Amino acid sequence: MRDNRNSESLSAEAQHGEAHPGPHGPLWRAPPVILLAGALTAAAVLLLNLVPLAAVAWLASKPAGLIEADLAALRFTLVQAALSATLSVALALPWRGH
């Protein structure tokens, strides 16, 4: 059974699933604190990715550089990340059964 208590507050397009996100869509109606939280989260994720990469680059620039084990670990990490992302996207795609 469908709850229609708040249906009068929705537009006709939104009730029928025809509303399209865009400049006047749901994202732009979010309170500024939500948008700020999203921006801060994105910045934190970016920093958490770039700081370790900078450390590896700094270590590689030293005279000793990266040893073979370091390069193997880096290669494994990159391959594993690529395979993980590929599998995640493949599982998220909608499948049409025939």
Q: State which percent range the strand residues make up.
A: under 5%
Helix content: 55-70%
Number of strands: 0
Spell out the helices and strands N to C. HHH
Low-confidence spans: none
Figure out the total of helices. 3
Overall shape: it is flat
Could you tell me how far the N terminus lies from the C terminus, measured between alpha carbons in angstroms? 31 Å
Radius of gyration: 23 Å
Class from helix and strand fractions:
mainly alpha
> Could you give a short account of the major beta sheet?
none
Summed over residues and divided by their number, the pLDDT gives a mean of: 79
Notes on the protein architecture:
- The chain has 98 residues and is mostly helical.
- Helix content is 59%, strand content 0%.
- The protein has 3 helices and no strands.
Please render the helix and strand layout as text:
Blueprint: H1 12-15, H2 32-60, H3 68-92
Summarize the structure.
The chain has 98 residues and is mainly alpha-helical. Helices cover 59% and strands 0% of the residues.
Features:
98 residues, mainly alpha, 3 helices, flat
